[in-house]
C-alpha cells in the first residue's frame, strides 16, 4: 500500500480491513527491525562469526567465573614457574675479592664465597656436522673386500639429522609457523637455513611415521565412554573442506539459563559425583519454567502456506533445541563422567584455525592431511606431559613414543 485511502469514503468493514492490514505490516516491519539489529550485534562471541570479523570493536571475553570465589593470581598449592637457583650450575665464574682493604690498605687473605647469583641463558646455538666413515679391508685369504655399514637412517651423502627435522616439524605444526618463516628461523637460530621444500618433506615424513600411531589413537577414542566432538571449515586449495575433531579428557536472553546451569555445575563439582534425583528434578523444573517464559517473549511464527519449514528467529530455534535435547543438556548432572562444557574439542579446533589465519589455508589436501595427522599426535602427547621435541626426534629415528591408551 503506497497511499492512505480517503477514510471518509470507506465503510466500517473496509476500515476494519485496512487496520488489520496495517497492523500486519507493522508486525512484519518490527520483526525485520529486530532481525537487522540482532545481525548488527553479532560478533565472534554470540555467533559463528570468526574473531577476525570483529574489527576494532572486539567484545570483551565473558567468563562464567564468579567474582570473589578465588583470589586473583596463582592459587594456593599451585606449582609456580619462578626461576630458582640450581644446586649444580654448568659453569662457575668467581669474582676475586680485593687484595687490600679499601679503608686502611691492609693486605687481605682467606677470601670466601659470601653471595651467589645465577644467570640462565642459552649456549651458542650452532649446528654440528657428524661424518660417518665406512672402513673396508681386503681378505688376505680370498681377496674379498669387506666393508663396514652405515648406521640406520644414514642413507645419503648429505642429509639433515633427526633433531633438525624434529625442530622444523615442531615449529610448523605445534607453534603454527608458516613454512617459509620456519626455514628462515632455522638459519637465524642455528646457522642452518633450509629450503621450503625441505620443511614440507620433513612434515610428510613425520606424517608417514605417525600414521599408524594416530590410527591407534582414533581407535582408542572410539572406545571411550565420553568423547568431545566439534568441527570447523578449512580452506584447502581454494575450496572449503571440513575438519572433524574427536577428543577426550548463546543469545542474550539466555542469562537466567546460564546462571541456572552454572549453579548446577557448581553443585555437581561440590558433590564430586552425580546429582541426587530429587535435586536434579528441581533444577529441570526451573529449566522448563525459563523455557516457557521465553516462549512468550519469542513466539513461533505460524506456518505459512508455502512448502517446507517456516523460518523462525534464532531465539525460537535455540529454545526448541534446549527443550528437545534437554536430556543431553543435563547429562553432566546425571553422569559425572560427562563434563559441563565441550571446551576440550573447541580447543582442539582452535589450533587449525590459528594455522589458517597465519598461513591463509592449505595449498593441497596432502598438506591438510599432514597437518591433521601430526597435530593429533602432538596434542595427545602434550596432554600426557611428554616433551614434544624429544618425541619428534625419536620419531625421525624410527621410534615414535606411543601414548597411553588406558
Task: Please give a structural write-up.
The chain has 406 residues and is mainly alpha-helical. It has a domain at 252-301 and 312-340. It is 45% helix and 6% strand. It is built from twelve helices and four strands. It has helices spanning 12-40, 162-173, 179-190, 196-222, 255-271, 277-297, 314-324, 326-329, 331-334, 343-359, 365-383, 388-396, and strands at 136-138, 145-147, 228-236, 239-247. The strands form two sheets. A two-stranded antiparallel sheet has the order 1-2. Strands 3-4 form a two-stranded antiparallel sheet. A hairpin with a 2-residue loop joins β3 and β4 (239-247). α4 crosses α11 and α6 (277-297) runs antiparallel to α7. The longest helix has 29 residues, at 12-40. The N and C termini lie far apart (71 Å). The model has no long low-confidence stretch (mean pLDDT 80).
Characteristic key phrases:
elongated, two-stranded antiparallel ribbon, mainly alpha, 4 strands, about 400 residues
Quick description:
The chain is mainly alpha-helical and 406 residues long. 45% of the residues lie in helices and 6% in strands.
Walk me through the topology.
Layout: H1 12-40, E1 136-138, E2 145-147, H2 162-173, H3 179-190, H4 196-222, E3 228-236, E4 239-247, H5 255-271, H6 277-297, H7 314-324, H8 326-329, H9 331-334, H10 343-359, H11 365-383, H12 388-396
Antiparallel strand pairs: 1-2, 3-4
Helix pairs in contact: 2-3, 2-4, 2-12, 3-4, 4-11, 5-6, 6-7
